[in-house]
Amino acid sequence: MPDLSFALLHVADPAASARFYEAALGRAPVERSATFAMIPAASGVMLGLWKRDGVVPPARAGGGTELAMTLADDAAVDALHAEWAARGVAMALPPTRLDFGYGFVARDPDGHWLRVFAPSAP
To answer: What burial class does residue 63 get, using C-beta atoms within 10 Å of its C-beta: 0-12 exposed, 13-18 middle, 19+ buried?
Structure first.
């Protein structure tokens, strides 16, 4: 079975998206070009940002997509929400308690959802 090595987001401007994710994740890209950027995720999975108009085969509209990130507790969720909101990150959902945990949904420059949550105790 293959391992998941990275997630790809199709973006309008890889440089702008790389700046956004570098600030959001606190990690610098390990690869940059005019059409692509790669940022390491804490789990070892890489996040690829590929210029939308260069994707082969061409990208087409599909279902909803989001990146999910977990934090240790509700206080950490509130703190990160406040930090991102202060930086002007667009929010799709304020901190809310859902059946799987407490979290919020932010949007990156291309409108991709970033779901940040602290999982509910089992």
So the answer is: exposed
Per the structure, how many domains does the chain have?
A: 2
Predicted confidence (pLDDT) per residue in 71-116, tens digit: 999 999 999 999 999 999 999 999 999 989 999 999 999 989 999 9
Provide the whole-model pTM: 0.84
Look up the domain containing 10 and give its range.
Answer: 6-54
Q: Where are the alpha helices (DSSP H) in the chain?
A: 14-25, 74-86
Residue 105 domain flag: yes
In angstroms, rounded to a whole number, what is the distance separating the alpha carbons of residues 33 and 103? Answer: 33
Residues 34 and 73 in one domain: no
